[in-house]
Amino acid sequence: MEYQITVRYGGARQRYHTFVVSGSDATEALRRAADEMPAEIAHDVDLVELRVAVDPDRRTYLGETQPA
Fold first, then answer.
1. How many structural domains comprise the chain?
2. Whole-prediction pTM
3. Which structural domain, as residue segments, surrounds residue 8?
């Protein structure tokens, strides 16, 4: 399963870095996210968010029908 990871860093001037990792579950995905996080921001991260990544080909928008 793919997970989208968003990390917030930068203190008072908050910035965000988003990337996708694969894992069999959230625990594995978080471990991979820790390994893949850029070293130059790791010391300044204060929030990590994990979400199931959306497949853009299967995503529906308001007014659209569900894909087959």
1. 1
2. 0.77
3. 2-47
